[in-house]
Every structure is written in structure tokens, then in C-alpha cells.
Amino acid sequence: xxxxxxxxxxxxxxxxxxxxxxxxxxxxxxxxxxxxxxxxxxxxxxxxxxxxxxxxxxxxxxxxxxxxxxxxxxxxxxxxxxxxxxxxxxxxxxxxxxxxxxxxxxxxxxxxxxxxxxxxxxxxxxxxxxxxxxxxxxxxxxxxxxxxxxxxxxxxxxxxxxxxxxxxxxxxxxxxxxxxxxxxxxxxxxxxxxxxxxxxxxxxxxxxxxxxxxxxxxxxxxxxxxxxxxxxxxxxxxxxxxxxxxxxxxxxxxxxxxxxxxxxxxxxxxxxxxxxxxxxx
Amino acid sequence: xxxxxxxxxxxxxxxxxxxxxxxxxxxxxxxxxxxxxxxxxxxxxxxxxxxxxxxxxxxxxxxxxxxxxxxxxxxxxxxxxxxxxxxxxxx
Lengths: 281, 91
Ligand SMILES: [Zn+2]
What we know:
The structure holds 2 protein chains of 2 kinds. Chain A is of the alpha+beta class. Chain A has 3 domains: 3-73, no CATH class; 79-213, no CATH class; 224-279, no CATH class. In chain A, 63% of the residues lie in helices and 7% in strands. Chain A has 10 helices and 4 strands, in the order ααααααααααββββ. A 4-stranded antiparallel sheet of chain A has the order 1-2-3-4, with no helix packed on it. In chain A, α6 crosses α7 (110-126) and α9 (149-185) runs antiparallel to α10 (189-213). The model of chain A has no long low-confidence stretch (mean pLDDT 83). In chain B, α2 (12-19) crosses α3 (23-35). The mean pLDDT of chain B is 85. The longest helix of chain B is centred in the N-terminal third of the chain and has 13 residues, at 23-35. A two-stranded antiparallel sheet of chain B has the order 1-2. Chain B is 49% helix and 11% strand. The radius of gyration of chain B is 14 Å and the shape is globular. Chains A and B meet through α2, α3 and α4 of A and α2 and α3 of B. The complex binds zinc ion. Zinc ion binds at residues 216, 218-219, 221, 246, 248, 250 of chain A.
């Protein structure tokens, strides 16, 4: 191989591998490699070619570390993370629907519109199921909290966004499932869509409400650090509950393990600003 | 690799020379160790590179956490201690 060929080969590899590196690190990464390659090329052009063998693996490692850092930086407790995950699911299902012409035509047809209407009705009918699945009333726990009007409003907006995104994702998922079995079931596939609609909506709607109840009413972050209170064997003699708290120190959610006459509903204990010192980061 | 870095081989290319490992192993490992805080990278003095008519290179040195990790590894695997000899410093 002539030195000119070596140089061209190294240059091509460097150019290709650079695309794998995240944009923020690309310039520095390229600079480091150019320096190393020119140092090696001064000794022998073939040495530079051998060194360039590691370009792609190094670029992949830089990308992997970048992704790992970004994932580690996600604040999973924050409401934004929850909405981002739901939006991602919805986007993936929408793209999957658009990718298959049969599914796309099914969604956009009159049948699709009718199915969506049916699905929305099923989602509304699924609402009472949350009374069974969510433990001892979601709303009562927060009736006495110190959240401002704006905070209350954002809480409802968050719940609505969760419901809309999860119901829409469930609809697309149900269409995909129905389409998969359409050949096998023929006209009976409509019943499968209704069955899927009922099942998926019950799961999605009760998840949305349960998740809402597990969040701090002030900042909407997921409550954490669940602590059990009282021995279970004393359930008839003493209160038996689980306590979870907001990691920003806004309050505690006290949930009874069993509904009793003296401890019927979950209670939210709002902590005032004097506690903030304890939760400082 | 930590051992070779500690002995004064500060560049990826030098570590390849000493260990005989390919660049596809050395450079990704350097990234990972830097990410874990075992080593830290910096750019060499531009004037030195300018004298040699080449771009400045990025060198790596072992951090305190890296030295602790190396000591731990040497205790567990005594052969590591004999692995690389200190680099001869040019006069
Ligand atoms: Zn909070």
C-alpha cells in the first residue's frame, strides 16, 4: 500500500467513524484522533492504518457513554419524564401504524373512525373501574393540601395529558392486535377490538389514576421512600399503613393498608417551608 | 492500562506499544476509565507539538481514585505490579 493510499484509507475511516460520535463531542474527538494518527503516520503510514482500526470501536464507546450519561441524568420522578415516555410510546405506535399500509388504511377508514369512537366510549366506561383498582380514593387524600390554584390546574392538565396519550396509544395497539388476527377471525375481529379496548382502557385509565395519586400534589413528582408503619399482625388493634414522601419535602402520603372505620382514606400531610432545610440538595 | 499510565506512558499510542493491545481496545478503555474518574485527560503544550511539527496530542494521567483502584488490583493480582516498567525520561 502506498503512503497516499494509507492516508486516504485513514481519512475515510475517520470521516465515517466521526458520524457515530455525538455532535457535542465530535470536534474534540476528531482533534484527538487526528493528533494520534499524524503522530503514528510520522513513524510509518502502515502504523497509522493499524491505529485507525480502533476508530469505529472508540466512536461507539463515546456514543455509549453519552447515552448512558443522558439516561442517568433523567429525573424519572419528574412529571415531564412520565409524559416523555408516554409521548415516545405513542410516537412509536404511530410510526408503526404508518409503516404498515394495511394498518394505516384501517385507522384512516370509516371503520377506524367508528372504532375510535367506540374506544373513547370504552375509556369513559373504564373510569369506574379505577374505584376498584385504586386504593381508597384518590381525590380525598389531597383535599386539604396547600397547593395553589395554578398547581391544582397543572395537576388536572397532567392527568388529562396522561389519559389522552395512554388512551390513544392503547387504541393504536388494539388496532395492531386486531389487524394481526383479522385473517384468522374475519368479521369477528371487531369483537376482538372491543375486547382489547375494554382491557387496555381499564389498564391505562387505572394506571393514570394510580400514578396521579402516587405523586406530590405540589410539584407532581412521584413519591418515594415507602415506609411501612405498624406490625401487620396488629391490624385490628393499631393502624397499619404505608407512608411515602416527596423528595423535595412538600409532604407525606399516609395510606392505610386496610380500610378501617378510623382510617378510611389515604391522607396527605403537607409540610411547610420550615422543613425545606432537611430536603436541601 | 492503569499501571502503564502510572509508569509514565501517557498517550494511547504509547500504551498500545507497551501492552501490545490493539487500538480498538485501548482507546475505548481510556474513555471508560476517564468516564469513571480513574484517569483524566488534558491537551499537551502546543509549543512542544509545534517544535515537532505535529498537532498537540491529548495525554492521560491517573487520578487519586485511579491510584486507589490500581493499588487494589495490585493487591489482588500481584503480577500487575511487575507488568510495566517506569518509562525512561529523556534528558
Ligand atoms: Zn413535591
